[in-house]
Amino acid sequence: MPVPLRQVIAALDARYDPALAESWDAVGLVCGDPDEPVGRVLFAVDPTTAVVDEVIESGADLLVTHHPLLLTPVHGVPADDPKGRLVHRLVRAGAGLFVAHTNADRAPASGVNDALAAVLGLTGTVPLEPCAADPRAGLGRVGQLPEPLTLRAFADRAAAALPETVGGVRTAGDPERVVHRVAVCGGSGGSLLAAAAAAGADVLLTSDLKHHPASDAGEVAGPALCDVAHYASEWPWLPVAAEALAADLSGRVEVAVSRRRTDPWTHRAGRGA
C-alpha cells in the first residue's frame, strides 16, 4: 500500500537529519504534496532532464536526489527556464522531488561517505571531521584496507568499485607506494587533506582536486591522492539509501536506483597515460 509523502519525508529526515546540512545548502522537499500517496521512489545523484524522463517513464511518485536542483536562491520557476522546466514536468506527472545533500554526506551508517568506504572494502571507519554533537557523524571517513595494496592497485580497485566515467581514476604519488589506511570523501573533499594526514591516511580518495593543492601535496610528507569523478564518488550511496528507505517503511514503497549516467563529461581525447 502506498504511504503519504509526509511519511516518506519523515523516514528520510530520520536517516539524513536536516540539521547536519551546511547553512548554505538546500535540502528537503522541493516540490510535491505531502498528503499525496507514494508507491514508488527513484534515487539518483542529479536531478537532470534524463533522470526526470526516467521518473515519468517509470511512474515514480518521488525522486530523491543527492544534488539540489535549486541550490542558489530563485525568484521563480517558469517553464521556459531549464530548472523551472524540470519542476513543471515533475508537478504535471504528479511526482515530488526531495534532496538529501550535505546532511547525507555527514550522516552515519547509511550516508554517502560510509557507502563510499564500504564499496572500497574499508573497515573500522570513523569520520575524518566528526560532528561535535555526534562523533559518529561527520565529513569523510578513514579506515583500513583488508590487506596492503600499492597505490596503483588501489586505483584499480577504485576503478572496479565505482561507476565507469570518462575521467576515470587518477592518482598523485608514487604508484608503488604501499597503501593500507585510506581516507575518503564523496564529492569535493580536497579541504580534508590536512585531516587525512592527521589521521595517518596513506591516500585520500575524493573528487574535484585542483592542480596547485595536488602539486603542493606531492612536495610534503602526507597522503597520496586519488581523484575520481564527483558523480562516481557519490553513486554508491544510492542503493544504500534506497534499501534503507524500503526497510524503514516496511516494504510499503517500491524503490529503484536510476541507471541514467549523470556524470557531465562525455568524451576524452588523447592517451593520457
Automatic annotation (TrEMBL):
GO molecular function: metal ion binding
Keyword Metal-binding: yes
Binding site for a divalent metal cation: H66, H67, D105, H230, E234
Record has Lipid metabolism as a keyword: no
Protein origin, superkingdom: Bacteria
Pfam family, one: DUF34_NIF3
Oligomer status and interactors: Homohexamer.
Assigned protein family: Belongs to the GTP cyclohydrolase I type 2/NIF3 family.
Name recorded for this polypeptide: GTP cyclohydrolase 1 type 2 homolog
Gene source species: Blastococcus mobilis
